[in-house]
Amino acid sequence: MRTLISTAFVSLDGVVEAPGGEPGYRNSGWTFKDIEFVPEAFEIKGREQQEATAMLFGRTSYEAFSPVWPGMEEFAHYKDMPKYVVSTSLTEDALVSGWGENTILRSLDDVAALKKTEGGPIIMHGSATLNRNLSDAGLIDRYHLLVFPLLLGAGKRLFSDTDKDTQQLKLVEHEAYANGLQKNVFAVIH
Q1: Which residues contact 97 (CB under 8 A, 6 or more apart)?
Q2: Residue 50 pLDDT more than 90?
Q3: Sheet holding 54-58: strands in order across?
Q4: Residue 116 burial (CB < 10 Å; 0-12/13-18/19+)?
Q5: pLDDT of 79-134, one tens digit each?
Q6: Residue 21 has pLDDT above 90, yes or no
Q7: Mind giving me the DSSP string for the chain?
Q8: Distance separating alpha carbons of residues 41 and 158, to the nearest angstrom
C-alpha cells in the first residue's frame, strides 16, 4: 500500500488558508509576513520532493498551483511526477500540459484505490477540504506540519470538527526553530 502524506503550513490554531498570498483571505500570505525566514525550517520541503512519487490535490489547490509550480526551479522534482486531482467538477480540458501526467479522481474511493497501486509515497500539498475528508476517512498515513507561531482566527482548517473516534498519531520527527516555527511529523496509527 502506498503512503499518503499530507504536508501543510498551519497556524497554531489550525488555519491553513492562503499561506502563500492567495487572494480573498484577510490574512493572506501569513507564512512570510512578520516571520523571520529560517532556511533550516524548510529543509523538509526538499526531502518531500525526493521522497514523493506522485502528487494529490483538491481542485482548488490544483488550480492555484498548476499555473505556477511547473516553471518554478524550487519544485523541479515535482514537474514530471504524476498528479492526481480529486474533483467532481473539474474537466479534462482544465488540466495543464507540461506538468507530468494529470489524472482526475472523482471520489475518496478512487483515492483509496490509488493507494492500493504499486509505487511510492503520494504527497498532498494544501487542499484543505480534501485533507479534512481524507483524514475523516482514515486515508492519510503521515502528516508533515510546519506550525507557525500565529493565531489567525477565521479561515479554512486542516482538520474537520466531525464527531468521530479518536485517531492516534505517533510523533516521529520534530524540531523547534529560533523564529518560533515548529516542524512536526506524525505517523497515523491505523
Answers
A1: none
A2: yes
A3: 102-105, 83-86, 54-58, 122-125, 4-11, 142-148, 182-188, 169-176
A4: exposed
A5: 999 999 999 999 999 999 999 999 999 999 999 999 999 999 999 998 999 999 99
A6: no
A7: -PPEEEEEEEETTSB-S-TT--TT-TTTTTTTSS----GGGGHHHHHHHHH-SEEEEEHHHHHHHTTTGGG-GGGGGGTTS-EEEE-SS--GGGSPSSSS-EEEE-SHHHHHHHHTSSSS-EEEES-HHHHHHHHHTT---EEEEEEES----SS-BSS---------EEEEEEEE-TTS-EEEEEEE--
A8: 20
Which residue is it, cell 482538520?
Answer: 159
Single-letter amino acid, residue 117: T
